[in-house]
Design goal:
With 228 residues, this protein is mainly alpha-helical. The protein has eleven helices and three strands; from the N terminus they run H-H-H-H-H-H-H-H-H-H-E-E-E-H. The protein has a three-stranded antiparallel sheet with strand order 1-2-3, covered by helices on one side. The mean pLDDT is 91.
């Protein structure tokens, strides 16, 4: 017996129309074998949820850092909303247990299939939007994805900027940039780091962040902007 109350508690949303929540988990294969089932598939809700997810993630990236340019935000958003990322999120919430699947899809491991899980995640967001409005849907996405947004901002572009700077420095000076922490402030669980990047003792750029990696990324980005 599916426990819809537990799912609502897990996501922090109480539906006015429970059928919308249920529809978010209806795979097309189930309808093919249950012609009298009253709900439609989750595909329309998935379409809606995909659009909402993209908007909310874009807003989060925009507000989190004023140093990210359009290309940065596009790459980070793509990393956050790609199928495997959504499927991992869905697995952490146990969404596979709620799927309505046809027998063939069930036997083929459909409850753990990345495509099905990602679609259910997006459809769930769409269902919250229809039932509760945009603010509730945005709040759900913000709560579920806040950690991932911070993680990709701290780690996702470090290699790009640092690699680009290293290539540029080696081409122009046959040297390698070095990074040094010049300041660290705050408690251990919430430190802020300031890092400088230098070449042969010459200052090229400075950055700050909640991790040494993110601070190095910002320093490398500033150096590239100066040398670009």
């Amino acid at each position: 017996m599916v426990d819809w109350a537990t799912l609502q508690q897990d996501i922090g949303v109480s539906f006015s129309d429970l059928s919308l929540l249920q529809q978010a988990f209806v795979h097309r294969s189930y309808l093919n074998e249950n012609l009298d089932f009253t709900l439609g598939s989750n595909e329309r809700l998935e379409f809606l949820g995909d659009a909402i997810l993209g908007v909310v993630i874009a807003e989060s990236l925009y507000r989190e850092s004023d140093t990210l340019d359009e290309g940065d935000m596009t790459k980070l958003r793509a990393a956050l909303v790609r199928q495997d990322s959504l499927a991992h999120m869905a697995l952490s919430l146990g969404l596979g247990d709620y799927l309505y699947l046809g027998q063939g899809e069930e036997k083929g491991g459909g409850r753990k299939r990345a495509r099905n899980l990602a679609c259910a995640m997006e459809a769930l967001i769409g269902a919250v939007f229809i039932d509760q409005g945009f603010e509730s849907a945005r709040d759900l996405v913000a709560r579920l994805f806040s950690h991932n947004v911070r993680r990709v901002m701290d780690q996702g572009l470090v290699i790009d900027y640092k690699s680009k700077l290293q290539e540029l420095v080696q081409a122009r000076r046959q040297e390698r940039p070095t990074y040094r922490v010049v300041e660290a402030a705050g408690p251990d669980h919430d430190k802020t780091f300031w890092v400088e990047v230098l070449v042969g003792g010459e200052f090229l750029g400075r950055g700050c962040g909640k991790s040494k990696q993110s601070a190095e990324k910002e320093a490398a980005k500033q150096a590239l902007e100066r040398w670009g």
